[in-house]
Amino acid sequence: MASNKKYLFTPGPAPVPPEVLLEMARPIIHHRTPEFSAILDSARERLKPLFGTRQEIILLASSGTGAMEASITNLLAPGDHAIFVNGGKFGERWGKMLAIYGVVGHEVKVEWGQAARPEQIEEALRANPQARAVLMQASETSTCTVHPVDEIGRVVRGRDTLLIIDGITSVGVFDQKMDEWGVDALITGSQKALMLPPGLGIIGLSTRALDVAQKNRAPRFYFDLIRELKAQRDEHTTAWTPSVSLIFGLNRTLELLHAETLPQVFARHRLMAEATRAAAPALGLKLISPESPAPGVTGLLTPEGLDGGKLVRLMRDELGVSVQGGQDQMKGKLVRIGHMGFLAPFDMLTAVGALEIGLDRLGYRFAIGAGVAAVLQRIAQGG
Amino acid sequence: MASNKKYLFTPGPAPVPPEVLLEMARPIIHHRTPEFSAILDSARERLKPLFGTRQEIILLASSGTGAMEASITNLLAPGDHAIFVNGGKFGERWGKMLAIYGVVGHEVKVEWGQAARPEQIEEALRANPQARAVLMQASETSTCTVHPVDEIGRVVRGRDTLLIIDGITSVGVFDQKMDEWGVDALITGSQKALMLPPGLGIIGLSTRALDVAQKNRAPRFYFDLIRELKAQRDEHTTAWTPSVSLIFGLNRTLELLHAETLPQVFARHRLMAEATRAAAPALGLKLISPESPAPGVTGLLTPEGLDGGKLVRLMRDELGVSVQGGQDQMKGKLVRIGHMGFLAPFDMLTAVGALEIGLDRLGYRFAIGAGVAAVLQRIAQGG
After folding, report:
1. From start to end of chain B, where are the E strands?
2. β-bridge mates for residue B321, sequence order
3. What are the Cα distances from residue A201, in Å, to A15, A99, A250, B310?
4. Cα-flanking dihedrals φ and ψ of residue B97, to 5°?
5. Chain A contacts of B368, Cβ < 8 Å?
């Protein structure tokens, strides 16, 4: 390929803008200072429109998985019942976490690549009226699929059941309306649409969720959200040592996203996803989730008989272009192209171009250039 | 375009790798220290293979134009005669500089987009046997054209005439053989293939050129190359205050280029240029220099009746993609796409993709996607 240049299209971690990398290179300050407090307050406030909430947002020095765990240990207790949607690796993770913490999980099984239907949740709630929470993904990264949180919110509403949403590949990617949809906990991580390195878990909590957490006696220490909220809201610092540089970066990245304006940020992700999907028919490939595709990551099924793992390695090692393969039953059968981080529509020409060269080198026959032409045609239509 | 992301494809300044930006963010050190000397020595040594020389290389705190001026004020004196090739804006600049310094310039006029022919130089030398120097560009950036320095070197050789080459868009772009071709001064700037911000002028000098400079009494102070060489070679520092951060960056960028290996670096530029040129017939566009195209920058003539200036502004302001238009008689009629700096073949998909969208928006009719498909087809062939 005559190049050492690397391109990152994994669905997290994702590229970080140079301005943000430089901001994170600022000298470290102590976290019990007015200077840090001003940055923390600003970042927490600037996050709210991305969550669609006027309620509380808490930062954690953890990955997104840490924030998922916090939602369980703060909002549920051993012996509680909860419903969880399992439509992929991250839905499955909800189930594993519930079991570890002694919560009786009731699985709503969803075929990989399909969206959960509100009727499925309604039925699960009817069968398990004692469920204290419904847990699901807004966007299931492993299957590149969006679940209809708004419609499911309508089903859960009016009950004594919390709605806990893993929004790791939805917050900042597309419009989240936590308050309007009746979401009680909305979770994300820094390394996706927030255009930061990994290391920050972020959780938005409804007043109702805070009440539940306040009364909950289940054991937790590092992820004690009540203690954290008291520190962050009332004392303008964090309970434990925060990721100072990442919070510098977060404040800056949110400034960039708001300068771009959120409607434009969402349009950017949507256009990248639609342009990438446009390449599928042009290359004779199928989408893993044709009916409910995620705007943050696109999953293309690799051709029958072609080793998808080899394709992903070839793209990375020989072409310098990192995408991600499939997990579990999709291992070797899927290529996932991320649209999150410091990426814009033209970058999808590179992602799809590298995919084409990879497919060609592995013997798949098609008209080289058909994919990038389809990508450009979709970009040219705007949106 | 739903994006604030910017892409830089001007034929200098060109994108700088993040590693190099970080290197330049190192704390400033003083330039009369062993630490600075080690970096200066290393950078000067690492430059030599890019110039194709085992002779001396001198760094100047100036743009490339400063280094061009230095070659005149050090190697020529008022009343001297010199031959210069004028095949574009930079050839014309040689003429202007010679006149300012009282050198009698004999112009070899070359049509824009054409390469100088060795016979033209031979004829000029015959007509002006008193000429002390032949000055030309290795690659004329304004017309995206390569001149055959190797063949012209054979014509000049054996005479008492220096060969002074502006290599600003050739050093690091394609193989330069200063010693083998008999070049006496080879000049470049930091902001092209060296992948640095602007601010460093660099000049390689033959032993013969140094002898001439040594004896030359023409006035010069800041650009006194003998004084500079004494400082850089013998005292391991610079005569005047150097661009310390740029020299940090230069040493790092040369490390990256040598790690990539020079044959690969040259192949990368060649492939970018060939892939970009492949888009021309696909889009019904003509090249400004079809017979001797430069590997560092490609010039595409805009369609009859379409305002090329408007096209360049639209690409920059609406699509975030910076390319450069034409100058003088090519104003409004040319789009120049640079291949220098931290760029690789896949990036040409973005440059050509943006060109296609710009052309489409200005009413030029063609099959959108044809250009990027042609680019990818060329990339897929490798090289």
Report:
1. 7-8, 56-60, 81-86, 104-109, 133-137, 139-140, 145-146, 162-166, 185-189, 201-205, 286-287, 297-301, 321-322, 324-325, 334-338
2. B7
3. 18, 22, 11, 46
4. -65, -40
5. 373, 376-377, 380
Instruction: Choose among A260, A349, A370: nearest Cβ to B4.
Output: A260
A264 touches chain B (CB under 8 A): yes
Is the sign of the CA dihedral A363, A366, A370, A374 positive or negative?
Answer: negative
Q: Where are the beta strands (DSSP E) in A320-373?
A: 321-322, 324-325, 334-338
**In angstroms, rounded to a whole number, what is the distance separating the alpha carbons of residues B138 and B148?**
7
Low-confidence ranges of chain A (pLDDT < 70): 1-2
Chain A residues in contact with B374 by the CB 8 A cut-off are 369
**CB-closest option in B3, B342, B370 to A345:** B3
- Phi, psi angles (nearest 5°) of residue B3: -160, 145
Chain B CB within 8 Å of residue A344 CB:
yes
A19 to chain B: which residues are within 8 Å by CB? Answer: none
B382 touches A1 (CB < 8 A): yes
The DSSP bridge pattern shows strands A334-338 and A297-301 to be: antiparallel
Interface of A with B in 117-176 (CB under 8 A): none
Report residue B294 CA to chain centroid gap.
10
For A283, the enclosing helix (H) or strand (E) is: helix A262-283
The structure's pTM equals 0.93
CA A96 – CA A156 distance, rounded (Å): 22
Q: How far is CA B310 from CA A56, B6, B297, B314, in A?
A: 48, 18, 20, 6
- Residues 297-336 on B with a CB inside 8 Å of A are 319-321
**Using one digit for the tens of pLDDT, what is the confidence trace for B185-223?**
999 999 999 999 999 999 999 999 999 999 999 999 999
Per residue in A43-59, pLDDT (tens digit) is 999 999 999 999 999 99
What chain A holds in terms of domains, given with CATH numbers, is: 7-14+262-380 (3.90.1150.10), 31-259 (3.40.640.10)
DSSP-based three-state secondary structure for A337: strand
